[in-house]
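Researcher: We are triaging several targets before committing to wet-lab work. For this one, the compound of interest is pyridoxal-5'-phosphate. I'm pasting the protein sequence and the ligand SMILES. What I need is the predicted three-dimensional arrangement of the protein with the ligand bound, expressed as structure tokens, so it can go straight into our comparison scripts without reformatting.
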Amino acid sequence: MMSPFSYKNNVLCAESVPLSAIAEQFGTPAYVYSKASITSNFAAYADACKQYAPGGEATLICFSVKSNSNLAILQLLAQCGSGFDIVSGGELLRVLAAGGSADKIIFSGVGKSRDEMRLALSHDILCFNVESIPELHRLDAIAGEMGVRARVSLRVNPNVDAKTHPYISTGLKENKFGVAYEDALATYRIAAALPHLDVTGIDCHIGSQLLDDAPLLEAVDKLIELIDQLAAENIVLHHLDIGGGIGIDYQGDKPVAVGDYLQRLFARIDAWRAARHGGKPIKILFEPGRSIVGNAGVLLTEVQYLKHGSEKNFAIVDAAMNDLMRPAMYQAWHGVQEVIAPQRSDTVTYDVVGPVCESGDWLARARPLAIAPGDLLAIMSAGAYAMTMASNYNTRGRAVEILVDGDTTHQIRRRETPQELFALESLLK
Ligand SMILES: *Cc1c(COP(=O)(O)O)cnc(C)c1O
């Protein structure tokens, strides 16, 4: 769909609501999300699954909770039929609190603790995406103690180059994630021999913000080879999980359309099934995050001061790196738009920075803006890996979250108060 953020009567709106009205009612900084954008981005996956999955192949879209874990957003996605990909016990409890069902939850991550495994087993989640041999042994032991069986998939590292930022590339040999491709067969044999594990699937996740689907298709080819080799050893897998990773437009980027990617993917799977898999169905899972919520949100902020230096001009705003870590962490580029459409003739080039005491506290660099103190800015593409990465550094309360639905606003998380930030601390007796 078109961006849910567009100018109406010279005011930038979320769906039909002017961002200036949201700032007035809820204050700044504020994350503002569009409900229609989230549901239509989810529908792009769901509709393509319906359209292209060969022979009605079973599919499950497991939203990556770490990209945006607000309860209302998880609830909205659960209502759309989404499953969930979690990376902690905390995320599991969030999904359940939001009304997600445990039988659609998969649990990823390299460092699952004993308590997290117990919690997930007690809810009988769909599958553990296991990333190492020691993790297999720990999970087997805990399932044994609990008298249950754990369904497992191995996260295999297909060693393909996702051609994205090194910090968000995960499928290469040097990454900490997954089991090396060369070790996958041996690791599956170990898993299959453990008494309290049911080996049900295979998964990968090669990176994030991928603009091209070629590395994903390459990864699928490599996983399919493994499925065949395992079948020859009587280790029969029931699902293939391709992970997430489809990118969004941050800076004029042109990510592959989800429908085109899924069409190509299912065509390969269909050809393989017909030729080698004996036509047996295999369930296909996806773990998208950014492509569902990334461009469905903005971070709304107010200009506090303008500072004109000899080298640079700074626009100091009331949002900071604690609200949006991505620029400091990955040198990520986020669009910045004036909420009131400006007169373009009098722009000045600014670095947009926050109040936090770090030189790394910047949100955008060298942007032409026509602004004055008190003006509002929207930091674009802040629906994914923004609030979920927010911190309380400098004892800054995390921002309010607003979900817009047409002309209605819902506060889906209130702003933290300073007292709440130190409420868990104690003075010495
Ligand atoms: C972060 C993550 C995802 C989601 O990635 P996106 O790029 O946001 O789609 C999916 N699977 C795993 C295992 C992840 O760690």
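Researcher: Any quick observations?
Model: The chain has two domains: 5-34+294-421, 35-292.
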